[in-house]
TrEMBL record:
It is found in: Nucleus. One of its GO terms (biological process) is regulation of DNA-templated transcription. This is NAC domain-containing protein. It holds the Pfam family NAM. The lineage of its organism: Eukaryota, Viridiplantae, Streptophyta, Embryophyta, Tracheophyta. GO terms for molecular function: DNA binding. The keyword Transcription regulation applies. Residues 1-96 form the NAC domain. The keyword rRNA-binding does not apply. One of its GO terms (cellular component) is nucleus.
Length: 96
């Protein structure tokens, strides 16, 4: 599985890389960066746009016990949107 820094890499670069895919789905790791040092809010902007959360976060539960072991968030990539301009929603979706 490849590693990508989604904050520093253009999506077109990712498309050109040799990534093992399963149809239209890619699997990779990307580091998380905090937006503020003392808070848990994550940095989701890139040099060409930003990842916007859509819908509520969902709990990930373990088998029969249904113990919550994590959360799943869905994010959609938007290009542009800076300095009063309208952004463009892309077809890129991440499940975090």
């Amino acid at each position: 599985m490849k590693d990508f820094d989604l904050h520093a890499v253009f999506i077109s670069y990712m498309e050109s890389e040799k990534i093992q895919t399963y149809g239209p789905e890619w699997f990779f790791f990307s580091p998380l960066y905090k937006k503020y040092r003392k808070r848990n809010q994550l940095q989701r902007t890139t040099n060409v746009g930003y990842w916007k959360p859509t819908g509520p976060a969902r709990d990930i539960k373990r088998g029969v016990t249904e113990e919550v072991i994590g959360t799943k968030k869905t994010l959609v990539f938007h290009m542009g949107g800076g300095h009063g301009h309208a952004d463009v929603t892309t077809g890129w979706v991440i499940h975090e």
